[in-house]
Amino acid sequence: MQALSLVFAPEVLAVILGSAAFGLFVGSVPGLTATMAVALLVPITFFMDPVPAISAIVTAVAMAIFAGDVPGALLRIPGTPASAAYVDEAHALTLKGQAELALGTSLVCACIGGLFGTIVLIVAAPTLADWALQFSSYEFFWLACLGLSCAVFVSRGSAIKGAVSLLLGLFIATIGIDITAGQPRFTFGNVELLAGISFIPAMIGMFALPEIIRFATSDGKVAALPVQRIGNIFSGIGRTLTRYWRNVLRGCFIGTGVGVLPGAGADIGAWVAYATSKKLSKTPEKFGTGHLEGLVDAGAANNAALSGAWVPAIVFGIPGDSITAIVIGVLYMKGMNPGPTVFLNDPHLIYAVFIVFILANLALLPLGYGLIKLSKHILRVPRQVLMPIILVFCIVGSFAINNTAFGVIIMLVLGLMAYIMEENGFPVAPAILGIVLGPLLEDSFMTSMIKADGDLLGFVSRPIAATLGAATLALWLLPPLIRLFRGRSAASG
Amino acid sequence: MRFNNAVFGVLIALFSVAVWVYSGTFPEMPGQSYGPSLFPRLIAAGLFLCGIGLVLDGIRTAATQGLVDFDPWTSDRERVINVLLIPIALLCYIGLSDRIGFLPLTWVLLSALLWRFGARPIWALIIAAITTVFVHILFYQFLHVPLPWGVLEQYAW
Q1: Residues B127 and B53 in one domain
Q2: Is the pTM of the predicted complex or chain greater than 0.80?
Q3: Which of these, A4, A171, A203, A383, has the minimum number of CB atoms within 10 Å of its CB?
């Protein structure tokens, strides 16, 4: 009840509506991602209470991920990376004159996927949190290790590059006063570095600046719209859903599952769902020619992944993707430590988050419909005007947290670093996870060391800790062992 | 710009050695073999291994990937200027915002960027003015962020 009154306050509803419009806009402009929407939103939410702040992020992201489908279908340019998996499929439908069907299917599947993920979140989170209450620093250490290892292995590209990205993030987190001994580290006498690398400027730099630089390196041309009028997007939806209900369900499951895995978010969920759909389809040869089946799977999966990512984030404080990593950073700054104790201390807050999730996914239907109707105009907004304006928001956003130009320096340095990393195939998501989880990892590690008096066996002295530890080691050791084994059997056979 | 993995490998390995050595200057905790240097050193060790891995990988792919490959945009002078303008604008803001103030400085920087990115000069000035005032109202008025006034200090509200 308290949660209901928290969410249905007029200011909160206004925030939800505003961030929904913002998310739809950012998501539908190619080159602006959902993560960037959050990065630009966070400096503003910094000044809000927890519930409106989280509502703003949840709504903006859910809207942005769907909105990414619109330029995907109309221009063959994914609005966000999460739409990239099926952009060819959706565009092929548009070329066949079925833009309405493609967009309608995306919209309805996004809504169903988001709601499914939310239900899983509502059911799973309290149960898991109950269990996680018994965790000590050993378990949290292994959990953080497991989460970060997943982030390395799930990221696309080479595992070494993922590991470098993660370690750089962890290193950045060690800058400043050491939490256990109070010793300044890597500050080189700089007073502003004593407080550490502020998370918000770091995140704005890593997620927004590379997109602006990348735009400056492009020729800035935007393809012409192939469709002049978009008719009724909901005609034929019922038939599609009854025909492909299995795909909807499969997409939901895959998306939520991938979302729960730390480090893998909506984009990977969509790729996996699309590939699975193609593999299990009776007519795989139709994929890529404007076939609805893959669209149904992947469209549901990316929105389901968003909600799924919140399960480990709320329960353990381990982010499921880069967006929840940002959310966790925000919660820490607000003095709330995500983890099982939140369910005891602030249960109304958790329920408010659940309600916002349902609300945002339901609002997707009418607002998404509005976006599709307006898409002709939104896609014409010149990006050469948008990008410099976004740069101004980046400056003010990184300045606003500590009110010093030092934040802008952090934003610039980490932004350039992220740009070079991405250009060379280093994923950026593990780095942001490292920055957020670094303090938790080191704190639980040092606490455990002190408790066990330096005896490493202490880390596996409790059954759950031992299991989590074994899982982490298996994750690191199994892939090379399997490769070795395969290599041998190939050599002998 | 794309570099061969070996280039990154060498840089990362050197960086990790520097972190390892510098961590040695942190004071020990009395009576314990582990202190503030332990965690950074674990990170450094991991980075070193990754660096070696990248060097090996880079040597293996040396035939197809040169030390540095330049993207097409790097040969287009206009675009190189545009790209460089982004960090330059940020550096200007970092160095000058306290003296000149948010309103005039942002207006000038934003107009310049908009013009370079392809807007007509008159429109660049108008759009920049509207954006600057809007951002100022949003952050200074509503969110109480003390954006610097600089030369306009006496007119501050």
Answers
A1: no
A2: yes
A3: A4
